[in-house]
Design brief:
The chain has 314 residues and is an alpha/beta fold. It contains 15 helices and five strands. The chain starts with a helix and ends with a helix.
């Protein structure tokens, strides 16, 4: 049992301090009522949470939590609604079926709408003795402060590029592939593995950058046609906007004489040229607008209008 607990997080890149604390919690079996994992996408938060749950339940691997009778996973499609929280409360009123604890896992806790969040808060205010709640969110600001205050918080940060590069080499990537994919990942291990396992994704994201560079010289009419096309493809739109954000961040690096650190090294010349064209205020404004669109994609955002607004100002 001790060996299982010791190795439950084996193979995970980075997050040494967080994993040590979680391992200690598993070893001591001194569980809080609620945990909140926060940080950017693709850092490994979900994998770590799933392994933590597997450790609590003494399961051999994390995949078994998906079919465990004492684990309730609430994903939500667009939003987590109050009906789902009511159903959750009914589930928690039942005694554990085969484990000592009943576990609730919300991998996208920020999807809770206000009624759902208020209802969920009552679960936190009146904790059941054999229930453990585990939430994941991009930041503490994405949740009600009253929910955050009742959770033990684990903040996850981006992983050092050399650590990701070394991991990719051990996984079989060539030195050139490992370097490129590690830099493209911008410290997000999940992205680096996605690039390694799907090389086409690297080229697709390069196409998003090429589109952005081309759009700057296109007419407003062509920009609006582009906005119309991508406003109907939410997943693609999200991927594209994230890649544009990386390009904007690279421009800031270039403005600060740090071209060697850019995440799109194949576009070094274009990044340098853009750094000479855009003012810092213009770049910061584009970043702010892009982030706003990304944050609101899950809601009833008018995607076409939002994208047109962004493209007008590029």
């Amino acid at each position: 049992m001790a060996n299982q607990q010791k190795n439950v997080f084996s193979g995970i890149i980075g997050h040494k301090i967080q994993l040590e604390i979680l391992s200690h919690i598993l070893a001591q079996k001194n569980f809080a009522h609620a945990y909140l994992f926060v940080g950017d996408p693709h850092l490994g938060k979900r994998t770590i949470a799933e392994r933590f749950i597997a450790g609590i339940l003494n399961l051999e691997n994390q995949e078994k939590i998906n079919v465990h009778p004492d684990v309730k996973i609430i994903e939500g499609e667009k939003l987590v609604t109050i009906d789902e929280i009511r159903e959750l409360k009914h589930h928690l009123n039942l005694a554990p079926y085969s484990a000592f604890y009943k576990i609730v896992f919300l991998p996208c806790a920020e999807k809770m709408n206000r009624p759902a969040a208020n209802s969920f808060l009552k679960l936190l205010e009146e904790p059941a003795g054999q229930t453990i709640l585990i939430l994941i969110a991009p930041s503490i600001k994405a949740l009600l402060p009253t929910i955050v205050s009742r959770c033990q918080i684990f903040k996850f940060y981006r992983v050092a590029i050399p650590s990701i590069e070394s991991f990719l080499k051990r996984a079989g990537a060539s030195p050139e592939e490992a370097r490129r994919e590690a830099y493209l990942s911008q410290g997000c291990p999940g992205l680096s593995m996605a690039y390694f396992q799907n090389p086409e994704a690297v080229e697709r994201e390069a196409d998003y950058v090429r589109d952005l560079i081309k759009l700057k010289n296109d007419s407003l009419a062509k920009r609006f046609i582009f906005a119309e096309k991508f406003s109907h493809e939410a997943k693609v739109l999200e991927q594209m906007l994230r890649q544009w954000l990386r390009f904007y961040h690279d421009i800031i690096l270039a403005k600060n004489s740090s071209l060697d650190l850019v995440s799109n090294p194949d576009f070094t010349l274009e990044i340098k040229k853009a750094s000479e064209t855009y003012s810092m205020q213009e770049i910061l404004s584009l970043i702010q607008t892009t982030q706003m669109i990304l944050q609101n994609l899950k809601f009833n955002l008018n995607k076409r209008l939002a994208l047109e607004t962004l493209l007008i100002n590029i």
